[in-house]
Amino acid sequence: MNEFEKNVQSKNNDVVDSIKGFAFSFIFFTLIFAIGVIISVVGR
């Protein structure tokens, strides 16, 4: 066992972190898309 396995900084589950990262990026890009659609509709 190496020293990194003995001294773990974060003990929470990786699946939860990956779900959070996916959700935040999905919400971010959806928000940018929605802003673009709103600007396109208003600009008509």
Question: What does this molecule look like?
Answer:
With 44 residues, this protein is mainly alpha-helical. Helix content is 75%, strand content 0%. It is rod-shaped and about 65 Å long. The mean pLDDT is 90. Keywords: Membrane, Transmembrane, Transmembrane helix.
Q: Which helices and strands occur, and which strands form pairs?
A:
Layout: H1 3-6, H2 14-42
Please give a handful of descriptors for the protein shown.
single chain; 44 residues; mainly alpha; rod-shaped; YqzM family protein
Biggest beta sheet attributes: none
Q: By helix and strand content, what is the structural category?
A: mainly alpha
> How much of the residues is beta strand, in percent?
under 5%
N- to C-terminal separation? 64 Å
- Report the average pLDDT across residues: 90
Q: Report the C-alpha radius of gyration, rounded.
A: 19 Å
Helix-residue proportion: over 70%
Order of helices and strands: HH
User: Helix segment count?
Assistant: 2
Low-confidence stretches: none
- Total number of β-strand segments? 0
Basic shape: rod-shaped
